[in-house]
Write a structure and sequence with these properties.
- By secondary structure, the protein is mainly α.
- The protein is built from twelve helices and no strands.
- It is globular, with a radius of gyration of 19 Å.
Length: 238
């Protein structure tokens, strides 16, 4: 009779297993989020990440094996990012009315996101490829990984930092905006999209549709601007 370790060793090499595990982990995270009354701390992505990390650790599965199986999800990030053109088009009349404030917020937000991360890391003695990996942390994963590769960074590290940034942004955005007494949903959404990319945008859509739409706009524009300014800002710290 074939023992379980042998069966598992065979199954874990198959791509379908890890794709299924990723989807199941997210469903568990979403269920936990709903059960908590949509508490931002119980973020579905965070829960899914912890579940998957526990499974990989318990089964001694290398991350490379997992990623090879779940890379279809990674591939779909590209089309999902392009689809953000939809909210931009639907809210084009709102964008035109607030074009100058949005442009100013975008520039300040993008520069601050890149420069603050590099400044803090540089002050702590981080340099080289690790430092370059920090620059695009506030952009959506497909763009961030591409920027990191062009800057000589570590794409895997960048991906982890992008997820961490998004989760932190999704958790703190609502209480922070409430504490600052910012009530304009356009401003709230645009800010979280610029600072916390896709995960923050998903959280914005859960709170308010207008905030979600502007978060998608901020996320898309920030990705474009970060790709342009990151090399120059990084050069100041190298």
């Amino acid at each position: 009779m074939t023992e379980f370790p042998e069966i598992w060793s065979y199954l874990r090499e198959g791509p379908l297993l890890w794709l299924t595990a990723t989807l199941v982990a997210y469903l568990l995270g979403d269920a936990a989020y709903r059960a908590s009354g949509q508490n931002p701390v119980v973020n579905p992505v965070l829960v899914a990440m912890l579940v998957l990390a526990g499974v990989l650790w318990a089964t001694a599965t290398p991350y490379a094996t997992y990623f090879e199986g779940a890379q279809f999800v990674h591939f779909m990030l590209g089309p999902a990012t392009v689809a953000l053109a939809g909210p931009l088009y639907a809210n084009l009349h709102h964008v035109r009315r607030a074009l100058l404030p949005m442009a100013g917020a975008l520039i300040v937000g993008s520069v601050t996101a890149v420069a603050s991360a590099l400044w803090i890391a540089s002050a702590l003695g981080v340099e080289g490829a690790t430092l370059a990996s920090l620059a695009p942390k506030s952009t959506t994963a497909p763009v961030a990984i591409g920027i990191a590769e062009q800057l000589g960074g570590l794409p895997t590290l960048t991906a982890a930092l992008v997820i961490l940034t998004g989760i932190i942004g999704a958790v703190v955005v609502t209480p922070l905006m409430n504490a600052l007494r910012i009530t304009d949903w356009r401003a709230r959404g645009f800010a979280v999209g610029t600072a916390a990319h896709g995960i923050g945008t998903a959280r914005a859509f859960q709170v308010n549709e207008t905030a979600g739409a502007f978060a998608g706009i901020g996320m898309g524009l920030n990705a474009l601007l970060t790709a342009l300014i990151a090399p120059y800002v990084l050069g100041l710290f190298q």
